[in-house]
Amino acid sequence: MNAEAHARKQFLEDYRRIRHAEGRGSEDSAYYQALPFRDLSGRNEAMWAMRAKTYSYFERNILAPIEAESQRPLDVLDLGAGNCWLSYRLSLRGHHPIALDIFADGRDGLGAARHYPNPPLAVEADFAQIPFLSASFDLAIFNASLHYSTDYLRTLGEVQRCLRPSGLLVILDSPVYREQEHGRRMTEEKHAEFLKRYGFRSDAIPSMEFLDLATLQTLRRELGIHWRMFKPWYGLSWHARPVKAWLKRRRPPSRFWILTGKFESL
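Now predict its structure.
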């Protein structure tokens, strides 16, 4: 086993341990089919409540206008699909999603696709080498997953190849910071917490971990991505976090803006 394969194996083992410890997944198909609107396990209700708000905003403000314009089912690449809940929701709206992830776990990865009626096509693959022909998709959606990329230029270059001329890139639930330094501090805090709680830092693969405004500008320049930012309302307490952090002299918290991107060359 080479160094890259060993790092990937270690990352997946660490990731599985963390996700299972957090109470992700269930033996009950109803759990998966209720996501993201209800967490029937009761283990991660606050997190799923936020994901539900993100998805509802995306459905209403981004997906619905595309549906109205296209007047046909969309071919969608669900990147970092996890347990495939997003693919399931898209299929209920009549679209043709394909779920892609490197995590094939039966509780919190692609193996959970079996819990849905008419399970989506689930493909175990890496962002850096998307195993589909060019111009295959209308939408490419990173579902709380782009920050696991190890190279944004390579990852989004693959997405650019796979999208059709009118295609749209959508980024949901990845942390965004105004300054890179704040994201780096968050990353170090997270890995230190993992080390304290689980005995390992969960950094076998050097994921990017966050987005920031300078990085978005670099991606715009290098790949010709025209970005739009959408800012869902997550509640007063959530949106007061920057003020609370400033008063406590802590680093600014992440934003969970929804980003969409159009490629100039498309």
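The beta strands are 75-79, 96-101, 121-124, 137-143, 163-172, 176-177, 211-212, 225-230, 258-263.
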